[in-house]
Amino acid sequence: MSFFPEYPPNLSNDNLQSLQELAIDWSLSHGLVIRPPTNLALSNNSSVMHAPISLFPSPFPKKTFYQAIELQPVFNLLFHKLSRNHEFITQVIEEVTKVDDFIDELYKIYLKIKEEGIAQPISLGLHRSDYLLHVPQDASEANVLQVEFNTISSSFSSLSFLTGELHRYLLESTKYFNSSELLKIDSLPLNDAMTSFPKGIAKAHELYGSPNHKIHIIRKTLAEIDQQGKLDPETHALIIDDKEISVTYFRSGYAPELHPTKKEWDARLLIERSKSIKCPTVAYQLVGTKKVQQVLAMPGVLEKYVTNATDAKKLRASFAGLYPLDSSSEGEAAVKLALENPERFVMKPQREGGGNNIYTKDIPPKLLEISTSERSSYILMDLIQPPSMRNIILRQGELVKGEMISELGIYGVFIGNDDVIVNEIGGHLLRTKGRETNEGGVATGFAVIDSPLLV
Ligand code: ADP
Ligand code: MG
Ligand code: MG
Fold this sequence. Notes:
The protein has about 450 residues and is α+β, with helices and mostly antiparallel strands. It is built from 14 helices and 20 strands. The protein has helices at about 15-30, 60-85, 85-95, 100-115, 155-175, 195-205, 220-230, 260-275, 280-285, 290-295, 300-305, 310-315, 330-340, 365-370, and strands at about 35, 50, 55, 60, 125-135, 145-150, 230, 240, 245, 245-250, 275-280, 320-325, 345-350, 360, 380, 390-395, 400-415, 420-435, 445-450, 450-455. The strands form six sheets. Strands 3, 5, 6, 16, 17, 18 and 19 form a seven-stranded antiparallel β-sheet that branches. Strands 12-15-13-14 form a four-stranded antiparallel β-sheet. The longest helix has 22 residues, at about 60-85. It binds adenosine-5'-diphosphate and magnesium ion (2 copies). One magnesium ion (MG) binds near residues 130, 147 and 148.
């Protein structure tokens, strides 16, 4: 199904070239940039190039956009509660630890801290909940279906804001050559994503009890933290370079390859033991796994943790079909279903960062290759098939036209202990990729950053 057949408008090559030049200049001068791949980079990592972006904002149904936004505070609170529910974490994660070494290492840290006592009751969540649009026969019943909920290293909050600003600039300065009725400034929603995450970190810094002046930021690898970090034996303050660390924000740590040696794991333990406010805690990372998403979708489970019936109903309406692949009777049934109708599904391991999923026809060979116990480290999910639409993307200076699909992300900011201190919506992200591409990552080279044009 193609949404908006008249989109993007047909422009002359001259007009397209003007947009291309303006987009590149604007991106380079406003920091809508990424570091180039090594083969294109100058020495000492000293160059940048424009980020992969769409030339036009992509149409997105207004009603469903706001539906996704409305879900965010409810999801924020749910994941906070789950991260503090020992019984839930134990029940869901323990089975996975037997067949997934990465989750096992995280879980060991979680248990150790549980036993020693938690030094910092406050946690900071900077999340992103991702959705694909689902359009049934009756298009007026379109809704968003959740792809996943990210609790660690949610990316692109600043680039998503900047891409929205780029589209606003192109529209204001060229009117896109008056080429489409849809392209109106009022249809480009404002996006807080540039400021929401830093504000969350600043608030956590304040709650730590830090003096109220400029916040000093240091950036370290996990290996450096292992080498340079220590704990104050009395207060459990995390000390690096003689400075007390108020907030530890992870831009790494979401995948096994980011922990190549024992040093990285020792650093994780050190941080977790400390009094610094962590974004995220290991518990938050564990409840952000796909396994937890699948368990929440089982009958009655979500409703146990979201006690407001209206809220629970709203969240559940955003769940695609999710199935265990373990040795339970549901798991056995799901394996059978996936072997018989693989084209309906995607199979997912407990991994982040893109490029890890197994799609449709590749599922049966994978299921047959791994042992029955190894299946527990995966979940099965209905393949969501959003409508495609055309757009033109700009990547490494070149324009490429094509049939595209978009994935909407909604950012969330949460700070809490026993109480809720901050629970906010933190802006949005739209990523767009070629219809034929399974995976959606921008960093992994599959997708571009876009912005929604509400219709
Ligand atoms: P990761 O944590 O690695 O980003 P995701 O669950 O987001 O894992 O999957 C990666 C990509 O795969 C998504 O961005 C989306 O493009 C695609 N994908 C994931 N789940 C589905 C699904 N149920 N239906 C269709 N595409 C999906
Ligand atoms: Mg993820
Ligand atoms: Mg994802």
